[in-house]
Amino acid sequence: MRTKTVGVRGVGFWALLLMLGLALAAGPAWGQGKGAPDFNLPDISTGKEYSLSQFKGKVVVINFFTFFCGPCREEMPDLNKIHNEMKGQGLAMLGIGLSSSPTQLRFLAKQLDLEYPILIGDDKVSKAYGGVEVVPTTFILDKSGKIAHKILGTRKKEEFVRMIQPLL
Question: Does residue 130 lie within any of the structural domains?
Answer without folding.
Answer: yes
